[in-house]
Amino acid sequence: MEKVAFLNLTYDSFNHDHIWKQFFDEGDPNAWNLYIHSKTKEPSVFSKYYLNKPVPTAWGHFSLVRATIAMMREALRDKKNEYFTLISGSHIPLYGLDEMVEIIKNKYKKTTFAKHFSYHTKVKSQKVLRVGAIAPHPFDLYNAVCQFCVWRRKDVISFVTSFEEYSRFFKEDQVIFADEFYFWAVARDLKMDFEMGQATTYSDWNMTAGPDGVSERCPKVLKIISDSTLDSYRQQGFIYARKAEPQTLITTDLTKSQKNLDQSQKILRIDSSWTIR
User: Fold this and answer.
1) For 133-155, what is each residue's pLDDT tens digit?
2) Which fold has domain 3-273?
3) What pairing do the DSSP bridges indicate for beta strands 240-241 and 201-202?
4) 201 to each of 67, 86, 97, 128, 228, how far by Cα in Å?
5) CA nearest 97: which of 145, 150, 25?
6) Overall pTM > 0.85
7) Residue 253 and which of 10, 91, 96, 266 are 20 to 30 A apart at CA?
8) From CA 130, how far away is CA 52, in angstroms rounded?
């Protein structure tokens, strides 16, 4: 049976451990593997999934690519891992595990990248070629893609085996947002058979000014996830959402089937149509 490898690049574990525990506990145990690159290695219910030797990382640095490669390398040890999906500690699943696995297998026939939602991010991320790439590098085109995507096994093997060659073209000690460029650029240079398609993850990139009046380059924190927001994210084609921080209020069962969610929405519409006479 082909498996889905969940690669969690995070500070510790998940912001909502209990949701992810339910997600994995209620699904087919033979359908998945979990690999967590934990910066702090803070003990949690998922401690057994932590990589033994995490890579020291910094925000926006090339070290994030190194950490992702470390998870890929570990996940390749299980030959049944065929689909590799990158997530973070602020991700939440929008389906139960079995339904999500089915969606991934049906939807992502090839390694699939998605263009980044944020124009602000696309502009800022061009630093990777302006100041972060070391000439003479082989990259002749820039594109900002969402780093949270799905890779197929044969391509992950190529990313891992070619890493020593391509990593030498990137500066290590600067904020260059290489994780939003590297894998797409390498896939293009290696002429992989990939697609530009549906992003896996919903993020709200509507820019807001921070306390100092400067626009922040981060997705908004999700305030609440209800039946209606869950249905909206699903209808847009997403299988995850972020940023779900500890204070995010979740009032729905994220693992409920789409059939049950549709039924809940139908009942809600009927209830809301009642009037007191």
Assistant:
1) 999 999 988 888 999 999 999 99
2) Spore Coat Polysaccharide Biosynthesis Protein SpsA; Chain A (3.90.550)
3) parallel
4) 20, 10, 15, 23, 17
5) 25
6) yes
7) 10
8) 35
